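--- STAGE predict ---
source: upstream dedup step, 1 unique chain passed
mode: sequence only
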Amino acid sequence: MTALGSAIEVIAAKAKRFGDRHLGEQNTKASLIEPLLEALGWDIRDPDEVHREYRAKGRDKPVDYALKLMRKPRLFLEAKGLGESLGERKWITQVLGYAVVAGVEWCVLTDGDEYCFYNATAPLDADEKRFCSVRLSQATAPEAEEILGLLSRKNLEDNLLDVLWVGHFVDRRVKSALTSLLSQPDKRVVELVRKEVPKLSPRDIADSIRRLDVRIESAVPRRSALKKSSSTKPARSAPTAPSGKKGTRQQIGVQLADLISSGLLATPLRLFCHYLDHDLEATLRADGTVEFQRQQYPSCSTAAEVARGSVTGRRMNTNGWTFWKYKDPAGEVRELDSARKAFLQRGTPSLRLSKSTGASA
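--- STAGE serialize ---
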C-alpha cells in the first residue's frame, strides 16, 4: 500500500469512529484534513506551500487552506466540521466566491470525510461546476486514492485537473446532445438505424428506441470513481474497461510513453524552450525519458527543473508539460500538454443498450 493509501485508511477509520459526534471544524482539520495533505506531499508547516486562513486581499474573507505552487495559490480548500452537509448552497457559493475573487480555478469543499471538487471559473451554474467527489468512509481504497491523488503536489504541478476537466466538459455536452436525440426519438436517429436494419419500418425502430433503456457513459478519461452527482444521489458507475484492452487511457495519470505508443509523438523528438534569453533543448526518447545535456530524466517536469536550474543556478518546481514545446508534423509549435489533452480526448462516449427490465442486450 502506498503512503497515501495508508493515510486514507487511517483517516477513513477515524471518520467512521467520530461520525456520530460533533467534532467541530478545528478538530476536523487537525485529525482528518492535515494528515491527508501531508500524505499528498504538502508541507503543512510551510505557508509558501500550505497557507492557512488565506486572504487574496486584506479585506477579503479567509479561505481555510490555499495550496500554493511557486508561492501562488493553485487550489483552495474550505473545511467544515465532520458531518456537516456539504450540499448546502451557501457553502458551495462561499468557496466558489473565494476562488473567483482570488483568480484561483480549483477549489475543494470538505468535512474531512467527503471531498467535493469544483471548477470555480467554469462559465456554468454553481451545481454544474462540480467535477467529482468521494466519501472516504464509504469508498473503496483504490477509488479514494485515485480521486484524492488529484490533490497531490505533483498532480497540481502537472495541471492534471485542468486536463481532465476538458474531457469532462466536452463529454457532458456530447452526452446531453445524444440523450436529446434518442429521447424523441429523433427522425435522424431513426433513419441511421434503418440503414443498418432496412427490413424494419421507421415506426418499429422508433417504438423500439422508446422501449430500450439507452445509457450513455463516458469511459475516457474518467473512471467510475470520478462522480458528478452528490453523495445523496449516487451516480451510476461507468462501465469497466474490457479486459485485454489497453489500460493506460483508462488511468488518470498520462505518461510520455503513452503518447509515444499511441502515435501522437514520434521519437526522437526535439523539445525546446526559450527561457530568460536562453534557448534550451532536450530530446524525447523512445522509452519516454527526456534527455537534457546528455543526462536522461524520467519525466518532462524533472528535465524542465534541471533545464531551468542551468539558467538560474537553482532548481525550481516546473511543469514540464507547459515548459517544453515541440513541432508537430505540420511544423506548428505546440506545448507537450497539447498532445496529452489530445490523448485524453481520443475516447468517445459509448452507448450501452439494455432492455427496460435491466437485462443486458
